C-alpha cells in the first residue's frame, strides 16, 4: 500500500489516516463537511486534495446508515483498488450493497474495536488502534488482494486482526459494546434528578459504570439504529434478570422467613453468575484474566507524584500490571491502586513504605 483515501474524517477515520500517514502512506481526506477534512489535514492526517488517480485503498468511515451508499458511489467511480468500511455493524451494509447490485469483490467489511467518548478529528490519535482487535468479515466473493490490503491496514495501525462472519460480529458487539452503552446511560440517567447529597457520595463504582455514558447520543442513535435486533435480544435477557432481582429484593423485605431466604438466594445467584461472566473477560494482552494483588497508596494531587511512585516501583524491580486512581471528593488527594503480580506485592509494599508512601488497606 502506497496511497489511500479516507472518506469521513471523524475520530476513527482520522485516527486511521494519522497511523497510515505516520508510516509513509500518502493519504487523501474527504468529508461531507470540508472543514472537518481540513482540520484532519492540519493535524497531519494527510491532504484534503483529491487524488489524481486510483488509490490503493479506500477507507469508508461514515455512520452505518450511510456506508452502503458511500461505498456504492466510490466503487462506481473506481476510486480505489480495494475498499473497506470501519462501521460498528457489518451485516446491514453488506445486505444493502447486495440490494444495490454492487460488485463486492473489491470490498471487505471491517470494524476496529476502539473508540473514545469524544468524537471528531481533534480527538483522533495515531495510536488509537494499537493492540486492539480489528474485525475483518471476508466472504467467498472477497478478492484475495483486497483481503491482503485490509490486513496490511490493520498491521500498519498496529491492531490485531480477527476474522468473523458479519452477522456473528453484529451479535457479538450487541453484547460487548452496544448494550453496555445503553445500560451505562440508564444508570447515569438515575443521577440527573438525584439529590445533591447522594451525588456527592459517588465513588469509583459509579464512575466505572457510567464512564461511557458521556458518549455522543447522536452517534449512538446511528449505531443502534443499524443493529437494533441483536441489542434488543440482549436487553431482553437483562430485563428478565432485572425483574427476577427486583422480586428477590422485595422478598428480602418480607416478614416471611421463606421469602427472605428465597430473596437472598436470588441475589446470590445473579451475583455469582456475574462473577462467572467477569472471569471470561480477557485480561492483559488478551490472555486469560490474572488475579493481581492491589496495593493502594495515598497520593497528593501534585505534579510529578505519579511519576515518582512509578519510579519507586521500578527501583523495586516490580512491574505494575494495571493502575486505577480513585479521587477523594472535595480533596486534593486520592488513592492510586497498583495491580501487581501477587509474588511481587511484598517487595513493592516494603519499598513504598521505606520511601515514605502512605499505604491503605483494600
TrEMBL record:
The cross-references to Pfam families, in alphabetical order and at most eight, read: PDH_C, PDH_N
Q: Which Gene3D superfamilies match?
A: 6-phosphogluconate dehydrogenase C-terminal like domain, NAD(P)-binding Rossmann-like Domain
InterPro entries documented for this protein: 6-PGluconate_DH-like_C_sf, ACT-like_dom_sf, ACT_dom, NAD(P)-bd_dom_sf, PDH_C, PDH_N, Preph/Arog_dehydrog, Prephen_DH
| Chain ranges of the ACT domain | 294-362
Q: Which GO terms describe its biological process?
A: tyrosine biosynthetic process
Residues in a coiled coil are: none
The protein's Enzyme Commission number: 1.3.1.12
Q: Which family does it belong to?
A: Belongs to the prephenate/arogenate dehydrogenase family.
NCBIfam families per record: PRK06545.2-1, PRK06545.2-3, PRK06545.2-4
Give the protein's recorded name: Prephenate dehydrogenase
